[in-house]
């Protein structure tokens, strides 16, 4: 079961990770609303690289710029920002799990409705969007996209409630799954978090202008003050007269996604009152307590493995060294190599730092293992650099179940830990030893005495299979029927 040989463009450490789906940002009452939104989205780019969009409201109409590609590719020129006039804006960066990567799925989506228009953007995934969409289409709805987020817009349009906020609330109380939503109307900026608070959303302030964002790093980049987290199940309404909160779902314990700490959120963000960097380092320390091994050097798999590797080194006392060097200037692959160059095993993005590896017993530390394809190549690269032993350590438990809450996970059959035992996984990646942080260990690293199985403190079903909400759209064969697939087959 030893791993395959490496080729030039394949040794990309990010190729085999879970991908977070999307980041949201909104601001109300600021001269530079669109420029600040572009900066906020830039800080959230790690949450989605496929497309970006900004919608403003000015002079009785929405103004929209939505593009495929990175924020910097489209929102760094003055003309685009110049067209986005108005003192209120919302924005979105996208990584698609439902809905193809086509312009009509790029968010924010917006519609002019009786009683005033609304624009929305969404981080997460609705697990009953398909069922609702089919009903809406049967009732005559005309859908502009194949994105699950549009279902909220359709339900707002159908609501017979008086005020737009009431219509928005009526719409989201019909949704299941995980979501952080930011919406814009003529006068208001609205935010909402699902009843369990699975996806993150924070409130900030910039000189009196309220801001809603997926992570605090989007506040830091523009010098905005962090006010608080938007609570689970809260609908927050910001208007020129102040901020109001509604709790249409009643209060229930929060269960935020634990993977935001493991990989999705930026290390400099504060999530749930915790520094993401500190939590990852603590996960590394707990990993060393649980899985330590005789070795000469701790080497992180860059970049996401760095904080945990530092923690592992601090706890074990084994020196930490940058044994893998990342080339930050790869961008688009510049030359298509000939077979001869490929055979050379050219490493475009990452290469081994031989002086820190040769003749040593190496512990590689990474944040998580999904399919295992990249781990095979990393182990081979470290062996080729002369390592005497290679031990692989993961600062999270084995991923055995697919996610349906906005994370692009492979189908279960492709998850290495769903099909192989620990020993088979070790043999597959070609390491001398392999170990994962335990589920209880990850809760200890978060400051608890372990997982509370009666009332789990976090959403953790990719490790435990304990899905926290109904999965209405789930098909017989345990695969969440995604919108595009059904749309295609009609
Ligand atoms: S499966 Fe659950 S814990 Fe894992 S990434 Fe998804 S929401 Fe987070």
From TrEMBL:
Function: Catalyzes the formation of phosphoribosylamine from phosphoribosylpyrophosphate (PRPP) and glutamine.
InterPro entries: GATase_2_dom (IPR017932), Ntn_hydrolases_N (IPR029055), PRTase-like (IPR029057), PRTase_dom (IPR000836), PurF (IPR005854), PurF_N (IPR035584)
Gene Ontology biological process: 'de novo' IMP biosynthetic process; purine nucleobase biosynthetic process
Record key words, sorted: Glutamine amidotransferase, Glycosyltransferase, Magnesium, Metal-binding, Purine biosynthesis, Transferase
Originating species: Roseibium aggregatum
Keyword Metal-binding found: yes
Name of this chain's protein: Amidophosphoribosyltransferase
Active-site residues, Swiss-Prot/TrEMBL: 22
């Amino acid at each position: 079961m030893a791993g395959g040989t490496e080729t030039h463009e394949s040794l990309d450490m990010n190729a085999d990770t879970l991908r977070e789906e999307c980041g949201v940002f909104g601001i109300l009452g600021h001269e530079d609303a669109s420029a600040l939104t572009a900066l906020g989205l830039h800080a959230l780019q790690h949450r989605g690289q496929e497309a970006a969009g900004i919608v403003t409201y000015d002079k009785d109409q929405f103004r929209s710029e939505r593009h495929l590609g990175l924020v910097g590719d489209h929102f760094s020129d003055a003309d685009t920002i110049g067209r986005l006039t108005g003192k209120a804006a919302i924005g979105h960066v996208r990584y698609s799990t439902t809905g193809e990567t086509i312009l009509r799925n790029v968010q924010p989506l917006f519609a002019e409705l009786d009683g005033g228009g609304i624009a929305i953007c969404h981080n997460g995934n609705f697990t009953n969007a398909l069922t609702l969409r089919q009903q809406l289409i049967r009732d005559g709805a005309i859908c502009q996209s194949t994105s699950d987020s549009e279902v909220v817009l359709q339900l707002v349009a159908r609501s017979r409630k008086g005020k737009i906020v009431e219509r928005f609330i009526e719409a989201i109380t019909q949704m299941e799954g995980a979501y952080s939503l930011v919406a814009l109307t003529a006068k208001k900026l609205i935010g909402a978090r699902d009843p369990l608070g699975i996806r993150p959303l924070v409130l900030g302030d910039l000189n009196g202008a309220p801001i809603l964002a997926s992570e605090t790093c989007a506040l830091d980049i523009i010098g905005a003050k962090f006010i608080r987290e938007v609570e689970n199940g809260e609908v927050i309404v910001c208007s020129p007269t102040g901020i109001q909160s509604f709790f249409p779902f009643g209060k229930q314990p929060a269960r935020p996604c634990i993977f935001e700490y493991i990989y999705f959120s930026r290390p400099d963000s504060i999530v749930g009152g915790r520094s993401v960097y500190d939590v990852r380092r603590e996960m590394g320390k707990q990993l060393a307590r649980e899985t330590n091994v005789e070795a000469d050097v701790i080497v992180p798999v860059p970049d996401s493995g760095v904080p945990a590797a530092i923690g592992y080194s601090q706890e074990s006392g084994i020196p930490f060294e940058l044994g893998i060097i990342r080339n930050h200037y790869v961008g688009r692959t510049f030359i298509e190599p000939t077979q001869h160059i490929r055979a050379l095993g050219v490493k475009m993005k990452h290469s081994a730092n031989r002086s820190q590896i040769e003749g040593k017993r190496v512990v590689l530390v990474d944040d998580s293992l999904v399919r295992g394809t990249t781990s095979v190549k990393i182990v081979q690269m470290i062996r080729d650099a002369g390592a005497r032993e290679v031990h692989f350590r993961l600062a999270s438990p084995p991923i055995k179940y697919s996610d349906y809450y906005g994370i692009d996970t492979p189908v279960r059959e492709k998850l290495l830990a769903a099909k192989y035992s620990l020993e088979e996984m070790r043999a597959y990646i070609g390491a001398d030893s392999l170990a994962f942080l335990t589920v209880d260990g990850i809760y200890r690293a978060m400051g608890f005495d372990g997982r509370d199985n009666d009332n789990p403190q976090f959403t953790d079903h990719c490790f435990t299979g304990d899905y926290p909400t109904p999965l209405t759209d789930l098909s017989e064969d345990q695969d969440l029927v995604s919108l595009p697939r059904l749309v295609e087959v009609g």
